[in-house]
Amino acid sequence: MIELLQITQGIIERGLIFGIVVAGVYIASRLIRFDNLAVEGAFGLGGALTALLVNYGIDPWIGLIGAAVVGIVSGIVTGLLYTKLKLNNLISGIVVTTGLFSITLKIAGSNMALIGRPSIFNKGLPSFLIPYQSLVILIVISFSIFYLVDWLLETEVGFLLRAVGDSPQMLTNVGKSVDLYTIVGLSISNMFAALSGALFVQYTGYFSVWSNVGVLIIGLAGMILAQTFSSSFGPALLLGSIVYQLIIALTFELQLNQDWNKLITALLIVLLIVINQWLDKKKGQLC
Q1: Tens digit of pLDDT for each residue in 68-95?
Q2: What does the alpha-carbon distance between residue 6 and residue 156 come to, in Å, rounded to a whole number?
Q3: More confident residue, 143 or 262
């Protein structure tokens, strides 16, 4: 029973970490209608910078802030490639992710352990919360982020961000720059990916240059799963991420060869898209 509770807690914790990536994917693909492939590069960059800073004795919370900043910068670069150099959105993301791979290697090498170093998960909480400190901290961080974004989306900036994807001509008509708000959206998207990478490194206690491989697919799968619960931005995105982690955990429980994980994820995405399309069609017929 205790082992089951520990496994469940681990699934929820990882779901909360990657739920922040899901939020970033949602903002890019659903809000501003931009297929942002730079998410993987930003995730790795955030993790690498945090590992480096923590190993240099910098406060781990500062490491998270640093990850968020470099994530924003990577989003700005992606946006500039798209808006100023007129590169295709997919190409812009590929170029940034490819470039960030080298930068990540330069920052932290192929791997870097945080052995004996403090993290946000092992300091500052009362002793009775120690068994659940990671879960508590991740709940506070993830729900705070979602609350702030939900608040932002209700402001003028949020409405303008929505207009980038829904009606860019409206932005032009009211004298606003579509390019500027596209860059803002990508900055937020990559910031979340980098922040998630930083949390993942502090949670696991190590950085690997290959840890960002497949992060985009995780974000996409989590987002599509979330859409079966709700199509709007909100806690459903966290739930989608947790359900995805549960599915992956089940593959371990069923003793499936882990080489098939990516194929399982790909098939899951196709299945969910088909289900969502069928549900939308049924709703349309009812209306």
Answers
A1: 999 999 999 999 999 999 999 999 999 9
A2: 43
A3: 143
Residue 281 sits in a domain of what CATH number?
1.10.3470
pLDDT tens, residue by residue, 201-256: 999 999 999 888 889 988 988 998 888 887 788 888 999 999 988 888 887 777 76
pLDDT at 287 over 60: no
Please check whether residue 74 is in contact with residue 42, taking contact to mean a CB–CB distance below 8 angstroms.
yes
pLDDT of residue 242: 92
Domain span holding position 179 = 2-286
Once rounded to an integer, what is the mean pLDDT over residues 107-130? Answer: 81
Q: Any idea how long the chain is?
A: 287
**How does 221-256 read in b/e, with b if 16+ C-beta sit within 10 Å?**
bbbbbbbeeeeebbbbbbbbbbbbbbbbbeeeeeee
Residue with tokens 């990916």: 193
Mean pLDDT computed over 99-123: 90
CB 186 within 8 A of CB 76: yes
Q: How many domains is the chain partitioned into structurally?
A: 1
